[in-house]
Specification:
Helix content is 77%, strand content 0%. The chain is an all-alpha fold and 332 residues long. It folds into two domains: 131 residues, no CATH class; 157 residues. α3 runs parallel beside α6. It is globular.
């Protein structure tokens, strides 16, 4: 990272964007070895929110018989209302552009209030059947609250909760723990729903970009869309109608490849390449199975190590080219 920064600074000097005196000052400043604790403090704040909400959940679970349902719900409601009170009091109000709080601590207060709201609604539905047998509403209502809070308070963490809740509402599980056991692999309807939801998220990013509505949220939407569409289409490549989904995967892979350059998102770029690589390999195996290539088994086994090594080298080269273009764009 230090070498990259030095090279970037040198490029700025060679392009006459900074003077020789400014170059020496930058080098002198970097030589001091000063670093920022901002990221570390934000991480601790995030962990404190998770530990606090988790602690409330454990407290409810362990003392549900002694404290009482009404007392627990009352405590949850009071804490949630207090959190929202301070959030609305310090908020700048809804704005189409970036309008985050001046104090980053308040962003985590919004996250706390949203999580407590989800806990409150889930608890009251479980205990008192607030929505009757319409269990989907118990997911949809916290999702709507999360979307409102995400856009009103301009909070990306809350937006991830909202999108996850939206996926859960249609029956999808997008957490890493349940990825391998997801119903994608047993229910075609869910895989179709995942592709449709991913497509809708993409359409929303296009629309929000046109009206300039929270365009910095697009990365989150595109990340969810990439994973949902890619996993669902790759799953369907193993079915008998794989050719249709091969075309869908190819089209979306090209789209995400282009958009990752537009928003300069390295994670989006890497996952796009990996999903495309997996899809290509499945299609190749399908082709070999179709032409009955058992006679060329020894040749395939001989070529495979070189193919894997070549793929790794190509991936590294693509990432280096991406970072190089990203650096050039930042210099310009």
């Amino acid at each position: 990272m230090g070498h990259f920064e030095e090279q970037t600074t040198q490029d700025l000097f060679e392009k006459s964007l900074i003077t020789e005196e400014q170059l020496s000052q930058i080098k002198e400043y970097r030589g001091l070895g000063i670093f920022s604790l901002y990221t570390e403090l934000k991480l601790f704040l995030y962990l404190s929110v998770l530990l606090f909400t988790t602690g409330i959940g454990i407290l409810i679970y362990q003392n549900i018989d002694t404290i009482g349902h009404v007392a627990i719900l009352s405590l949850l409601l009071i804490v949630t209302v207090i959190c929202f009170y301070f959030c609305f009091k310090k908020s700048k109000g809804f704005q189409k552009e970036d309008s985050s709080f001046e104090n980053p601590v308040l962003q985590y207060l919004v996250l706390t209030a949203t999580l407590l709201s989800c806990i409150f609604i889930g608890y009251i539905q479980f205990q008192y059947k607030l929505f009757g047998t319409h269990y989907g509403l118990a997911t949809l209502v916290p999702t709507i609250i999360s979307f409102f809070c995400a856009y009103y308070f301009d909070n990306k963490s809350v937006l991830t909760i909202a999108v996850t809740g939206l996926a859960a509402y249609i029956g999808l599980s997008v957490s890493p723990q349940t990825l391998l056991s997801n119903d994608f692999y047993t229910t075609d309807t869910l895989s179709y729903s995942a592709i449709v939801l991913g497509g809708l998220l993409i359409l929303w990013t296009i629309y929000s970009s046109k009206i300039n509505l929270k365009t910095h949220f697009n990365f989150i939407y595109l990340t969810y869309a990439l994973h949902l569409i890619s996993i669902a289409t790759i799953n369907n490549l193993l079915q008998g109608y794989w050719l249709v989904f091969a075309i869908i995967l190819g089209a979306f892979t090209y789209y995400f490849y282009k958009v990752s350059y537009q928003i300069t998102a390295i994670s989006l770029f890497v996952f796009t390449i990996l999903y495309g690589y997996v899809g290509i390999n499945i299609i190749v195996f399908k082709f070999l199975e179709f032409v009955n290539a058992t006679d060329f088994y020894e040749l395939i086994m001989l070529i495979t190590p070189f193919y894997i090594i070549g793929s790794i080298i190509l991936l590294i080269k693509l990432i280096k080219n991406f970072n190089k273009q990203k650096a050039n764009d930042s210099i310009r």
